[in-house]
């Protein structure tokens, strides 16, 4: 199959842009989950939004994004509150509290989906789970030069615009609250003493995560949002010890996973002689995992290779010093 | 090659004493966290029995030494022998009283359940905890003055009581060599007396106790031998010989000592 | 409708339905039993990663079956593939936590999402192949009981009983490792291998439940019944039994509801029933439920007020009319003055207060964790030798 330029610009480019923006936004926000050991909050949020999405759809009666996103935010916030309640009042550990709440929410969402109206209009769990990159189309551009015309950009698909806005929001939040984020990530006790209200901060991060995740759902689906919230920040964490570097690096790695994953799914099979493309969302998650694996194995200081070499050098130093003292 | 305890001057031709293998031999032990050495080339031979205090400044690796002796932390080099054989073959002979913070106090077990865990090694795989083992556990609780609290959930006990339960658990193991990690830290006076009573009883029964101890002022009173470490072994032997002003300066890095050490 | 419901509940609505309901109940029971130790070992969400990681195994097993020329969909092969990749996922998590500085939550999330993504990619590849038998693969994600044959349900039941039985056999070992893994290791118990055994049991329950509940929700069977059971007791043995019962009931009722209303997705219904039990336990369980806690707090306030009033009356002060009436009911107060019993109680309250004060001054860091420790009779909370010491020092 040959891809014409126009096909690429109209079908692949918007999907690629959506994927990259979604991945970059999730990777950036994900740092504050990973640093606070709350990586699984992303998992919980992505499951807990389902009843909100379906509820928004049922209440609004249309497949517009806004009611569904609003419903998803409400659902995520409610889940956050309930998780805290179960943790605090029920004295369950946080993993179990999350597990109880998000599975119940997800089950409720599944039941709601299977009822008449939602089923009939093809709102099914599949597209919430996997996203629908393939349906993002940009019909305006016809050639590379056409990209220079502003009118073309005005017709950018809605999903891409939303994701760009969310990414900008994430960057703005990170820049505005850089100091607070750093302290709250490393020392919640100190943050509280300085009057920074870590409780408030916790819900702020939760809402930002939910907003980012919801915007990204359309591109990569809910389960795979978890991959983007965790894998790029984790990889960056293994490659650097400095927070600003980690933030930039994780965003870049997220974008890279988005590009590599999409390219691998859309074009890879054809380069290998196959006939059909693969699921883009899944491939992006695999790409993110692959980047993390490389960081784990080859990271110069914290990767396995680096550590093994370091330990060998240390053992050698011990042996030498022992000899010199004649013990 | 076995390390045997040698009392100065009392050697036979083969360099061995008739006292049998030392309860604990540490050879060239090195432990590092992220390339920072915490213990460096530690070598130590414990006396055949008695109460041994491991002392040194904060962060000197005292706890780490105990944990390494139990195989709980990975080592970069060195070997541990218990009564002449590698540690992993001698687990049944070794008892452990950890620091109090290491468990989840909300766990649904009673004090008796916890003490009975010390007997699991004797019970073996798959078999339930029989009545006789439960009675042995209760007896251990009596020795620490906690028999009345046998069925209390552990989170409902005070700090000193929790420490006593851990001590009873080690006693229930009926071991020969005991490691204790700061058993006197942060406990009430009665618990301190209870712990001391247990230590003295163990000593009288010929057991060896290696104890991380934080309070230099009571070392001479409670223990017979000492091991002074600060990442390396500074000195070891009878307490009076170890806790000299010179050794302490070497260990504590020249900081002025905030108190008088008895016998220094 | 009611008669039909009664028939399904009592396993009289036809052989197939009966076996499916019974098998699902067994699944729930196994989930509760194994899940108790997962909960206490803080591995609840590792099971989530385990279940998501089964997807690539299922897809790979399907492809293997196609390659080997097996007809249609070979369930044992698929489930075997699920088990292998699930366990591999858990081992990867453990390796990541042990050998890198990644925290456990990051490791779990990364493995969960990456493995699921890989499974999704493989599924899309299978779709492109257009071979037969692949229609049901997607159902492993959200589950469906409708098409379960009675043989499969029997197999499910047997495996579930095996899982529960193995957990019972390893009860004390699993309890030890869950409570104090450091001590267990020091005693020579193979902590890592026991952990792997526990995860293998979790994998077994997951694989059994994949068809019914689907891989996203099967983790609920491992988390919700034990979480509900926790509210009822402080003893591990009782907790395990209660979790098994809650799980079994959820399976039973959920499968029944799903049989009566075929439009309801079975897995989700089972989970919601379990959630109902959880809510009831959270609110009303006498040991740790909210209502009981509120009641205890109220009793505490009353006891505090009572003690304060007694002490004031003893030294000639006064108490509110309501309090005087209450003390009269208890026989402590009559005709405007303390009775003998009242005076004894007041003196005991005064001694209690002095001793607790002394304890707080001498050992500020040692208070027990129960909320009533300042008011409860000190002789019942602290050991006798400690109380003697406090009495001496308080003089």
Walk me through what this model shows.
The complex is a heterotrimer of chains A (327), B (264) and C (395). Chain A is an all-alpha fold and 327 residues long. Chain A has a single domain (5-326), classed as ABC transporter involved in vitamin B12 uptake, BtuC. Helices cover 79% and strands 0% of the residues of chain A. Chain A has 17 helices and no strands. In chain A, helix 2 packs parallel to helix 5 (94-113). Chain B is an alpha/beta fold and 264 residues long. Chain B has a 6-stranded mixed beta sheet, with helices on both faces. Chain B has a 4-stranded antiparallel beta sheet with strand order 2-1-4-5, covered by helices on one side. In chain B, strand 4 and strand 5 form a beta hairpin. With 395 residues, chain C is mostly helical. Chain C folds into 2 domains: 2-288, ABC transporter involved in vitamin B12 uptake, BtuC; 291-394, no CATH class. Chain C is 76% helix and 1% strand. Chain C has helices at 2-9, 15-40, 44-52, 54-68, 75-99, 104-129, 139-142, 150-169, 171-179, 181-186, 191-213, 218-230, 236-260, 266-284, 290-314, 321-329, 340-362, 378-381, 384-394, and strands at residues 333-334, 337-338. Chain C has a two-stranded antiparallel sheet. The chains are: A mainly alpha (327), B alpha/beta (264), C mainly alpha (395). Chains in contact: A-B, A-C, B-C. Chains A and B meet through helix 17 of A and strand 1 and strand 2 of B.
Summarize the structure.
The complex is a heterotrimer of chains A (327), B (264) and C (395). Helices cover 30% and strands 23% of the residues of chain B.
- Strand percent estimate of chain B: 15-25%
What is the string of SSEs of chain B from the N terminus onward? EEEHEEEHHHHEHEHEEHH
What helical percentage do the residues of chain C reach? over 70%
- Assess the beta-strand content of chain C as a share of residues: under 5%
Q: Compute the CA-based radius of gyration of chain B.
A: 19 Å
Oligomer: heterotrimer
Shape of chain C: elongated
Give the spatial strand order of the biggest sheet of chain B: 6-7-8-3-9-10
List the total number of helices of chain B: 9
The coarse overall form of chain B would be: globular
Within CATH, the superfamily of the largest domain in chain C carries the name ABC transporter involved in vitamin B12 uptake, BtuC
Strand order of the largest sheet of chain C: 1-2
CA-atom Rg of chain C in angstroms: 28 Å
User: What CATH architecture of the largest domain in chain C would you give?
Assistant: Orthogonal Bundle
State the largest interface: A-C, 66 and 61 residues
